[in-house]
Hints:
With 293 residues, the protein is α/β, with parallel strands linked by helices. It contains 8 helices and 10 strands. It has a 10-stranded mixed beta sheet with strand order 3-2-1-4-5-10-9-6-7-8, sandwiched between helices. The longest helix is centred in the C-terminal third of the chain and has 19 residues.
Amino acid sequence: MSDPVVVGVDGSASSLNAVAVAAREAHLRAAPLRIVHACDRPPPILPPGAEPWPPLDPALEPMVQGALARAEERVYEVAPDIDVFRSVVVGEALEVLEVESRSAALAVVGGRGQSAFTGLLLGSTAVQLAAHGRCPLMVVRGRPAPNGPVLLAVDGSPAGEAAVGFAFTEAALRDVPLVALHVWNTWSARAHESPGDPPLAVVSDVDHLRDVEQRLLDETVARHRPNRPHVAVERRLVRSRIRPALIDASREAQLMVLGARGRGGFTGLLLGSVGQALLHHAHCPVTVVRGKE
Length: 293
């Protein structure tokens, strides 16, 4: 059996939207779907030798099972032909999803939530999951363009190669074009390479830098094009501020794909304001793909 698509649910409208997207992803991959509800609560005071995490409180059982049943109903509205499994796990949402990601093809979460998944995208939790999860993480948000392309944020780093491959695969599965977007500016590269360089270096030869960035974009696409020769690819080089350019480009896309690490202007992408801005403000779902360590 193929690795499953995993989706975290909490009964909120946002998580039900995530379930619908996850069901479609499972259908495209001919993979099973695993619906997971995490019950986060502090361990009670127990006698010596007792299990640290007792079974789910029977009083919560109807509410939790109701949320799972509604999620499963949504699945069959979208993809009635896929295999669906559901489970309730006692634990903190981040920890539960990180464990689930170890055996998943894709993890899917909503942009907002309640109960166990409340605040999943607030603060650093989603950043941590994107950085430490073992599979790509899709955050369902915005209003994706139904017939739009898959948008790939190209950074040219070795770690970003996994994101490029994932984006080509998504475009092929959805039968839509791929827009490979590389945003650059005069702060995108360092003028010197010695350890004593200042953190920001002015690049004076703009024409040379543009040629370098174009070559980076072309070579990134060329490395993956043979694996998906039938995917139509638009290579787009934009000189701009990275964060607003990526957010604006997401308006026309049905999915945005980016790596969890980067180079130049993408350095620390998911550790700073740029990555968090994309997770919070992109106009379509965002998938973060970790590269090899």
